[in-house]
Each structure stands twice: as C-alpha cells, then as structure tokens.
User: Fold this.
Amino acid sequence: MAYIAVLDCNNFFVSCERLFRPDLRRRPVAVLSSNDGCIVARSQEIKDNGIGVGVPYFEVKDILKDIGAVCFSSHFALYRDISRRVFSVVKSYCGQIEQYSIDEAFFIVPATSAKDTRQYVVTLKETVERLVGIPVSIGVSDTKTRAKRVNAYAKRNGGIGVFAGHDFLTEFGATPLGDIWGVGRQLVVAYKEAKLHSINDLLAAPTPRIAKLFHKNGVQLQAELSGQAVYQVTQSISIPKSLMSTRSFGEKTNNLATINDALAYHVRFVCEDLRAQDLVASGLQVILYTSRHGDWRGYSGSVSVVFEVPTAMTTTALNEALKALRQLYQPQVPYTKTGVVAFGLMPTTFVPQSLFAAANTMTNTSEVVDEMVDILNHRYGRDTIKLGMFAKTPTWQTKIALRSPAYTTEWQALKIVRA
Assistant:
C-alpha cells in the first residue's frame, strides 16, 4: 500500500534568512511585507511572544526591539531559489511531486509498511536538511487531508508524523474541524450550526445529511477524513491560470516616467517567468492604483489587452502594457502601485497562429534578444540587462531597508568563507 505524504518547510521565509546567518538560529526573527509594512513570517520565538501575522510593523516595533528580534524585508528572489533547491532534492529522491506552494509539496511514499514508510521519510528529511539546510516536516497518511493534519502534528513533534487507518482517528478524531485543511471560517460556523465540531462528529454524520447541508465539498471532506482518497497526487505540472507582478511604490507619485519604469519592471519579470516555464500569455492586465483612503481612491483602475498571438516576448508585452497605462494615467493623481497580470496561459507548443496578425519580421530578432537577456540576467543577476528603462534610478522601488543580500542569485553577494 502506498501512502500520501506532504513535506512542508518550517517557518520557510525565516529559515531562508537564517540559512546564511547561523548566529540567528535561536534569536527571534521576523520577515516584513512590501514596503516593510506588516509582519508576514515569524520564528517560533516571535510567535511565543504573541505577535501575529499581518500585524503592522510600527505597532510592534518596540516589542520586537525589547526581545532582541531581527527583522528582514521580504526577499522573494532568495526564497524562490531556496524553494527550487529544496524540491529538486525531493524530486531526485521521490520522482514526481505535486508542489502545492513555495514551501510545500505532496508526494507518494512507495513503502509497504508503516515501519518502511517512517524510515523512508526520515531519510528524506535528513537528506533535504543536509543538502539544503532548511528544516522540514513531513506528515504521512492515507489521504491529502489526513496528511495535512499529520504534518501539523509533525511540526510540534520532531518533524515526522505517520498516522494511517484507525491510528489516525485514535490520535486526531477529536480535532476541531476548524483545524482541518480547506475548512475556512465561514465553513466552521456552518458546521457548528449543524452540531458538527470535530472529525469524529463529521464521520458519524450520515452522508446524505452532509450532502444536503454541504454539498459535494462536504462529502469529499468526509471521505478524505475517513481515509478514502478523493484528491489524488497529480504527477504532472499544472499550468497556472495567471502570473502576477505588482508592488507598491516607496512613495506616492504622479510622474509618468517613474510609473512607466515600474510597469516595465513588472512586464520584464512576468515575461521572464513565462519563458522560464515555457509558457505564453493570451493577454495582459495592467493595474494602476491610488491609496484606498483619501480623495483619490476612485481613480484606481485596470485595463486588459489581448495579444493577436499569445506571446512571452518582452517587447510585445511592454508595448501593449504602455498603451494600456496611457488609458489609466491622469497627471494630477498621486498613484501608489502598478503592476501586470498575464492571463490565458498555455504551453508554447499550443500557440495558435492568427490568420489576421500582421507579418512581423522582428519576431525572430525579439526572441533572440529575449533569450540573450535571460542568459545574461541569470548569470549576472536579474535586471543586469533591462528592456524598457524610463528612469535613471528606480525611485519607485518599495522600502527594503532591511533586505538581506542575494546570497544565491548574485555573484557579488556570495558569502566569503575563510578557513
């Protein structure tokens, strides 16, 4: 019998920051959101002091200082690269995996007994932590929903949890439904109104009643918690519905060159990401926002454009994005944020050709330019070469005063070790 496992990186953003700062292993560490506004990740020491996710940084700044906390600006390029390293190790060990998020993946454990299963995942955990240095927890059970619950247990109990069959219900039967994967706040209220509070309550309820009250999702949840696998571990990489790049400005601005420069950055980022995944986009949505508070809040907006032929070429996407921006921009308005969303994604091999698209003799040249830019930026750091630059300095950039170096993606930021 094969089991379903979920591997989750512990306090992932914090662990990435600690990876190159071993002096922080036992110190409180927090990671901040865009513009250093809110706390988005916390070490256990921060959690133990009662500081929650989403709390504005300025509200707890003094508390963090008093407990000796170290804070970092978000560094997503670093986090994505460490994530890639973690799951490349997992793939080499397990074969195909279903990566659920930047720090989490499902996989099948090819073991025939609970003892073999435990040894398999213990070895995997040790391998990831030895080769990458990121602490991970692994939960194993009969279904995805059960495995997620076991993983939460594993985080508090040495990083490994294996509970399947009746053993799962013995250990977790009394677990509140609000602690189960996929059960949000509104569902918790609905379950409570139906006198269903725990896993045992849900499993004891007649399935027709669950179907009447909670429809298909309720029946599937009941089946998953009973040990019947409804959600399979997919062995193929799913294509995302869209790719987004957006960021708040460091300060409000109505300068068109500054906004153009920010928009170009986001277009480059999305197109590079598309090419890295061998995808193209059918269109692009351009957004331009003002503050949600004050006299200008009604001037936010977005414009979508559909390409004649799906593309991942930066020049094509940037030309269309700048046209869309001109429809949104008003000189007197102080803007706070811009960005793009690439939609209608498909593999490059599925690109349909348009009978009505004008012949473009520059297409091949643009593809070659994009390829060379990607190679150079991969080698020397993102945005070493820029297509579309409207300001000498990126004055629109968000506040990143506390950002750590790009340890793994820029040559000049490599750690120097002397022995």
Notes: The chain is about 40% helix and 20% strand. The mean pLDDT is 87. The longest strand covers residues 242-253.
